[in-house]
Design goal:
The protein is α/β, with parallel strands linked by helices and 249 residues long. The chain has a domain of 165 residues: TIM Barrel (Alpha-Beta Barrel). An eight-stranded mixed beta sheet has the order 6-5-4-3-2-1-7-8. Helix 3 crosses helix 5. The longest helix has 15 residues. The chain starts with a strand and ends in a 17-residue tail after the last helix. Bound molecules: iron/sulfur cluster (2 copies). The site of one iron/sulfur cluster has 12 residues, from loops. One iron/sulfur cluster (SF4) binds next to loops.
Length: 249
C-alpha cells in the first residue's frame, strides 16, 4: 500500500499554489508519527513523508526515516531539494522525489521557489550519489510555464522519471490561483477510484486518516465511508468539491 504522512506544514518556500502556506504551521510529534505507524494494516508499505510542508525541515526527519527502515517499510519523500544532504539521502532512500517547476531563476523566484541554484545542484549530487539517475524522480506542477528547458535539463542529467501534474482544481487549492485555467471539466460521474478500491492511505498533520492526499480542509472531512455514500447518492461531499477525480476529463 502507498502511504503518505504529512509530518509538517512548515516550508522555506512560498509556492503560489501551495495550500500549506495558509494552513496552521506545525510539525508532527514523534509520538503521533509512531502512533500512525502502529495503526497501519499489515503489509510491506511504501511510506512517503510528504504533504503541504517541506519534510526535510522537520527536526526529527532523519529519525523518522530510520524508523521507517527499522519497521521494514520502504521510505520515500518528495523534497524541494533546498536543505537535504544528497549523500545521506542516497544512503537512506531507495528512491527520492524532488520538486522542480522551472530552471528559469526569475520565474522560480516569481512563483515562490527559491534557492534554484541549490536545488539544481542537489539534483545533480543525488544522481551522482545514487550512481543511477533512475532513482531520482522529479515532480513538477504544470501551471502553464514553458516546460521544454526543464525537460531538456533533466534529460541532460539522465533523469527519465519526470512527472508533471496540472494545478489541482479542488476548491482547497484553487482559491490560491483565481482565474487560472484548470483541468476540471466534463461530466461529473460521482465516482472516485480512491474510495472505490483504496489506492493509498494519507495521514494529515493531525494524524487523520484519509483516502487521498487532496483534502486540505480537514474540518470538512467526515470519513471515507461518508464520501462513498455521498457519491453513491449523487452528491459531492464538501471535502471533495472541485476534485478532478470526479469528472470525465
Ligand atoms: S516546496 Fe512544497 S511545501 Fe514548500 S511551498 Fe512549495 S509546494 Fe509547498
Ligand atoms: S478529494 Fe478527490 S480523490 Fe479525494 S476522495 Fe474526494 S473525490 Fe476522491
Amino acid at each position: 500500500m502507498n502511504v503518505q504522512i504529512e509530518i509538517g506544514t512548515h516550508c522555506n518556500f512560498k509556492c503560489f499554489y501551495c495550500a500549506g502556506r495558509d494552513m496552521p504551521q506545525h510539525y508532527m510529534s514523534m509520538a503521533s508519527f509512531e502512533a500512525i505507524l502502529d495503526r497501519l494494516p499489515p503489509g510491506r508499505h511504501r511510506i512517503s513523508l510528504q504533504g503541504e510542508g517541506e519534510p526535510t525541515t522537520h527536526p526529527h526527519f532523519w529519525t523518522m526515516v530510520t524508523l521507517l527502515r527499522v519497521r521494514g517499510t520502504i521510505p520515500y519523500t518528495i523534497t524541494n531539494g533546498s536543505v537535504i544532504d544528497p549523500q545521506r539521502a542516497a544512503r537512506e532512500f531507495p528512491k527520492i522525489g524532488v520538486s522542480l517547476d522551472t530552471i528559469d531563476p526569475l520565474e522560480a523566484v516569481r512563483i515562490g521557489r527559491y534557492k534554484l541554484e541549490q536545488v539544481m545542484s542537489t539534483i545533480q549530487a543525488l544522481v551522482a550519489a545514487y550512481g543511477d539517475p533512475g532513482r531520482v524522480i522529479v515532480h513538477t506542477v504544470d501551471y502553464g510555464q514553458e516546460m521544454a528547458p526543464l525537460a531538456a535539463w533533466l534529460a541532460d542529467q539522465g533523469i527519465t522519471k519526470h512527472y508533471p501534474q496540472p494545478l489541482q482544481s479542488k476548491d482547497d487549492y484553487a482559491y490560491r490561483y483565481p482565474g487560472q485555467a484548470l483541468v476540471h471539466s466534463g461530466e461529473c460521474l460521482y465516482r472516485c477510484r480512491y474510495v472505490e478500491s483504496p489506492l493509498m492511505l494519507y495521514y494529515d498533520i493531525q494524524g487523520v486518516e484519509m483516502p487521498c492526499c487532496y483534502i486540505k480542509d480537514g474540518a470538512k472531512f467526515e470519513s471515507t465511508d461518508h464520501i462513498r455514500r455521498s457519491l453513491g447518492a449523487g452528491r459531492i461531499p464538501h471535502c471533495c468539491s472541485g476534485c478532478r477525480e470526479l469528472y470525465t476529463d
